[in-house]
Amino acid sequence: MSTSALALLGLLSIRDMSGYELSAFADKSLGYFWPMHRSLVYRELRRLEDAGHVAGTDVPQERLPDKRVYQLTDAGRTRLQEWLTAPGFESPRYRNEFLVKFFFARHITPDRLRVFLDDYRAALEQDLVDLDATVAKIEGDPDAMFGRLAARHGVHTRQAVLAWIAEVEQALDDLLPVVPTRDDRR
Amino acid sequence: MSTSALALLGLLSIRDMSGYELSAFADKSLGYFWPMHRSLVYRELRRLEDAGHVAGTDVPQERLPDKRVYQLTDAGRTRLQEWLTAPGFESPRYRNEFLVKFFFARHITPDRLRVFLDDYRAALEQDLVDLDATVAKIEGDPDAMFGRLAARHGVHTRQAVLAWIAEVEQALDDLLPVVPTRDDRR
DNA sequence: GTTCCCATGTAACCCGTTACATGATTTT
DNA sequence: AAAATCATGTAACGGGTTACATGGGAAC
Question: Among A84, A106, A107, whose Cβ lies nearest the Cβ of B108?
Answer without folding.
Answer: A84
